[in-house]
Amino acid sequence: MSFECEETVLILDEMVNLDKTELPFGKRWGGQLVRLTPAHLEALQAGKFLAIDDQNEYVVYLALEKDKS
pTM score, two decimals? Predict the structure, then answer.
């Protein structure tokens, strides 16, 4: 798998093996899988934010981007 991107969010077919040298965002030392439930998706659709605890160190906020049309 080869990546060259300047994006902050990618859609992948599978999780990336961190032991490989070519990663979507450059070298990373850790990763975490977050599974969303239908209730999470419903909250996003209702304009709410999801706050994700990332390894007891960071918080990642998810929001649904509305169509610009």
Answer: 0.73
